[in-house]
Amino acid sequence: MVKRHQERGKLLVRARIEELIDSETPFLEFSPLAAYGLYKNEVPSAGIITGIGVVNGREVMIIANDATVKGGTYYPLTVKKHLR
After folding, report:
1. Number of domains in the chain
2. Its Gene Ontology molecular function terms (predicted)?
3. Using an 8 Å Cβ cutoff, are 47 and 65 in contact?
């Protein structure tokens, strides 16, 4: 899925976040191990990236679906992480 995504000229989710946040600023990702050991380990980070980054000098909450994980499908832990 990752290869096909890149062949279509699309950025991966973490690359999109890096493009969004101000350069030279960190991104604090929440729960990167969510869903670890569940769903046959086919849903890394519960299929969604959440965290805090700096955009135009302001700290913001960022929530981004990972389309390379089951096409962006929401699992119960995805919803839980999103609502957190």
Report:
1. 1
2. methylcrotonoyl-CoA carboxylase activity
3. yes
* Cα separation values, 35 from 13, 23, 43, 45, 54, Å: 17, 30, 7, 6, 26
| DSSP H helical ranges for the chain | 2-7, 13-20, 76-83
Contact indicator for 53, 17 with CB cutoff of 8 Å: yes
DSSP-assigned letter for residue 42: -
Q: Which two tokens stand for residue 31?
A: 């729960």
Residue-number span of the structural domain to which 30 is assigned: 2-83
Closest CA to 36 of 82, 75, 84, 83: 75
pLDDT tens string, the chain, 84 residues long: the values are 778 878 888 899 999 999 999 999 999 999 999 999 988 888 989 999 999 999 999 999 999 999 888 888 888 999 999 888
For residue 19, the model assigns a pLDDT of: 97
